[in-house]
Amino acid sequence: MQQQLAARLRQWGVRVTPQRLAIAEAVLNSSDHPSVQQIYERVRQHFPSMTLATIYSTLDVLEQSGLIQELPFQKVSRYEPNLDPHVNLVCVQCGDVVDAQQGHQAVVRLKNQVARDANFEIGWQRVDFYGCCRRCAAGQASQPATASQ
Amino acid sequence: MQQQLAARLRQWGVRVTPQRLAIAEAVLNSSDHPSVQQIYERVRQHFPSMTLATIYSTLDVLEQSGLIQELPFQKVSRYEPNLDPHVNLVCVQCGDVVDAQQGHQAVVRLKNQVARDANFEIGWQRVDFYGCCRRCAAGQASQPATASQ
DNA sequence: TTTACTGCAAAGGGTTTGCATGAGG
DNA sequence: CCTCATGCAAACCCTTTGCAGTAAA
After folding, report:
1. Taking the model in full, what pTM does it have?
2. Which residue lies nearest C16, CA-to-C1' measured?
3. Staple partner for A62: which of A28, A67, A78, A91, CB 3.0–4.6 Å?
C-alpha cells in the first residue's frame, strides 16, 4: 500500500517523506472528500508540528502525480481520491459529499459519446448532483456548518 | 426579455435596478461561462462607476433566484446561465468552458437513475469534462492565461 | 553531499462586509 | 417616505510564496 504509493511518487522524481505519506493516506483512505482543514486536523495527530503549507504543497504533488483530484466548491476545495468515472452526491444542507453507488457505467458511456461527437480529448471528469441527502430530508439537520455549493 | 427578467426578480422580492439588469443580461446572454472579472469588464462599459461588490451581490441574488449557477474552479468562479442538464467541456490549456452539444438526454437519464436508486433529491447538477479542446490539440495554444482546473 | 522538503511567517488576491449616499416601489 | 441597492473602503480568509533549517537519496 505505502509501497505502491512511495513508488508512484518517486517515479515522478518526488521525494517521499513521512509527512507526505500521512497526507496521501489521509486522502486516499477517505470517502468523505475532505477539505484541507480536515486533512490538517487528521494528520496533525501524527505530526503536531505540520503546517498548512505542507498540506497544500503535498496535495499539489499528489494531484500532479495523478493520485487525487481537487474539487473546488464555493468556500473551500475538497479532495477526491476516486479518479474513476462516477457521480458525487453533494448535500446542500449538511455539506456531505459521497460517491453514488450507481451510474458509473453511464458516466463512462457519456464520456465516450461526448469525446467522440465533440472531438474533445477528455482527461478526467467531475459529475456532481446537488440536493438533499436522506438524513437531511428526514429533518435530521445535523451539521449545517460545512454546507457546500 | 427584460420584462420576464424583471418580473422574475420582483417575484422574489428583489428590487430591480438598471445595474442588476445589465449584470443579469451579461451572464444570461453569454455562452462562455464568464468570471466575475469578465462580467465586470463587460458591464462597466455601460456603468463605469460600478464596483465588484455590486457584481458579487447581484450574482448572489441571481443564483438564489434560480437564474444562474456558480461554477467554482481552482482560481475563480464562473457563472452558468444554462441550468438544464448538460455537459461542460473545460479546456485545461486555454481555460475555455463551453456547453457540449451532446449528452443532454444521457445526463437526464443518469440524474433520474441516481435520484431513484440512491433516494437523493437532486436539485441541480454539474457535469464537467476536462481535457483539451480541438484548437489547443491542434497546437494553436492561444491564451493559456485563464487556464482552469 | 546534494537536493529538495518542512515549518514558520508574511504576502497575495478573490470575496465579503460595513456604512453613508442614493434610488426603487 | 421607507426600504433596500449602490459604491467605496476596509476587512476576511483561503492559498501562495520566501527563506532558513533539515531530512531524503
Report:
1. 0.94
2. B53
3. A67
